[in-house]
Design goal:
The complex is a heterodimer. By secondary structure, chain A is an alpha/beta fold. Chain A contains ten helices and ten strands. Chain B is mainly alpha-helical. Chain B has helices at residues 2-19, 26-41, 45-66, 75-115, 118-125, 129-167, 172-180, 185-211, 217-247. The model of chain B has no long low-confidence stretch (mean pLDDT 94).
């Protein structure tokens, strides 16, 4: 479980996060949504320790990140998997070498077992036949799947995904959403996704928090968001004609 | 401008302090070092060889033309060629060429990794990214550049020997005699010591500019250019101080 308590983050004169509270439970796909500039990327980077927070606490299963020693922080990072917006695969390494990288760097497994683990992860994301291709030779959807395989290679307790559907067609987006949901439940991972994609939110969001101007303005599940009265939700989710029609249809049906 | 330089220099020193830390896993660093030796060392052999051979030949011809006097023995041409190549051309000029080739490669590679979030991916995994990415590059340059410069010295002198014989300006016997006459072995040590310092400057300065890129493709290109310019200036300035320190 990850807990954020009253997290504050400032850049110079600008306060980007103004005391955000959130609890992300294991086995759940937790989603952070919000408009551009709402602070969701800064919040995720603060959770990951890539930004030093200026106030509040971040706890990973009770361990306060700000109190951890350098070594303890390094050990914690080994429990974290991250899927970046564009995959962030290492260009100079093949698909299998990308997945093997964290294993080779941090595990003491024999080479054969490492290879088996990497191949298992690639099979788990339905990518068994691209081991020796380079990132430049595969599609955007495949890159995301390799990134997921690399993220789960070390059997993480926490999985972070930054805009996992950006740049993907709707069909591939659904494949990625389902894959993340399955992996989250299968390995009981605490998954935190930062997204704009409302299809993805409604497909996979077990727990959703909406950020607006650096504060949490709504919290609930994918079933609750369609019925939420919150002004922030109305502004963000039901801005588009499509979602307005969806909401109207749901209300009419009831 | 001075404030900007000092801020940048401070950031460069901070980055260096992060680079020289204990590696996470030796085998991964050895693998990375071998890759860098191939990229920055072996792949530079061709350009260093071609330039050294022809510049050695040109230095010999120009020296011969300028010393064309019946009172000056022909073997003086070889002495002058030898001193030019060992003292300045090989260590300094070849290092400037390597600043262009290797420096731009290091800056653009690290810059691209930065803007495509590959460096953040390493950090999130718990890898000490400055050590993993920069240390093998510095080591590869510091270890391999002296080999390149030694090769450059031999090929430069061979180019001179070939040009002297081919043009008939100096006989091969006189040239060989000149190469051996009044030879000071310390000059080679001096040249190689300079090379090691230059190699460190090229790799670390270029890595700094690449590693600290913010933005996109345009900024990566700018960082690459800045890396080459800053490395070249650093080499020229360091050359003056090292020469003063080691030869005065």
């Amino acid at each position: 479980m990850i807990e954020a308590k009253n997290v504050v983050k400032t850049f110079g004169e600008t306060t980007v996060l103004k005391g955000v509270d959130a609890v992300f439970k294991p086995g759940n796909v937790n989603m952070i949504i919000g408009q551009s500039g709402s602070g969701k990327t800064v919040f995720m980077k603060s959770l990951l320790g890539l930004h030093q927070i200026d106030g509040g606490e971040i706890l990973y299963d009770g361990r306060n990140v700000t109190d951890l020693s350098k070594q303890e922080r390094k050990d914690l990072r080994k429990e974290i998997g991250m899927v970046f917006q564009f995959g962030a695969l290492f260009d100079s390494l093949t698909v299998i070498q990308n997945v093997l990288f964290p294993l080779e760097m941090f595990s003491n497994l024999p080479a054969k077992e490492m290879l088996e683990r990497a191949e298992f992860c690639l099979q788990r994301v339905n990518l068994p036949d691209s081991n020796h291709r380079y990132p430049a030779e595969i599609s955007g959807g495949m890159k995301k799947r390799v990134a997921i395989a690399r993220a789960i290679a070390m059997s993480p307790k926490y999985l972070f995904c930054d805009e996992p559907n950006s740049g993907l067609d709707p069909e591939t987006s659904i494949v990625i959403d389902n894959l993340i949901s399955e992996i989250t439940q299968e390995f009981n991972i605490t998954t935190v996704i930062n997204t704009h994609d409302m299809n993805s939110v409604l497909e996979a969001g077990d727990h959703i928090i909406l950020l607006k101007n650096g504060t949490k303005s709504w919290e609930g599940s994918k079933d609750e968001i369609l019925y939420a009265d919150s002004e922030a939700v109305q502004e963000f989710v039901f801005k588009s004609a499509l979602f307005k029609r969806v909401k109207k249809a749901l209300m009419t049906r009831e | 401008m001075i404030q900007r330089f000092l801020t940048g220099f401070g950031a460069y020193l901070i980055l260096l302090s992060k680079v020289f830390q204990k590696p996470e896993k030796g085998s991964m660093y050895r693998k990375a070092l071998l890759k860098e030796l191939q990229l920055h060392g072996l792949d530079s052999l061709a350009i260093v060889s071609i330039i050294s051979l022809f510049v050695g030949a040109v230095v010999t011809i120009q020296t011969a033309l300028n010393l064309d006097d019946p009172l000056i023995p022909d073997y003086y041409v070889a002495i002058a060629t030898r001193e030019s190549i060992i003292l300045e051309f090989s260590p300094t000029m070849i290092s400037l060429i390597l600043a262009g080739k290797v420096g731009s490669n290091i800056a653009s590679t690290l810059g691209t990794m930065r803007v495509s979030e590959q460096i953040e991916a390493l950090e999130v995994m718990g890898v000490n990214a400055p050590t993993y990415l920069i240390l093998p590059k510095i080591l590869a340059c510091v270890l391999f550049n002296p080999i390149l410069i030694t090769l450059s010295m031999f090929l430069g002198l061979f180019g001179g020997y070939f040009a002297a014989g081919f043009t008939g300006m100096v006989s091969n016997t006189d040239f060989i005699m000149g190469l051996q006459m009044a030879f000071i072995p310390y000059y080679v040590q001096y040249a190689l010591l300079k090379t090691v310092v230059f190699a460190f400057l090229i790799s670390s300065i270029s890595a700094y500019f690449g590693y600290t890129v913010k933005g996109g493709a345009v900024e990566v290109g700018e960082a690459s250019t800045k890396a080459v310019v800053a490395s070249s200036v650093a080499i020229i300035v360091a050359n003056y101080f090292l020469t003063d320190l080691l030869l005065s």
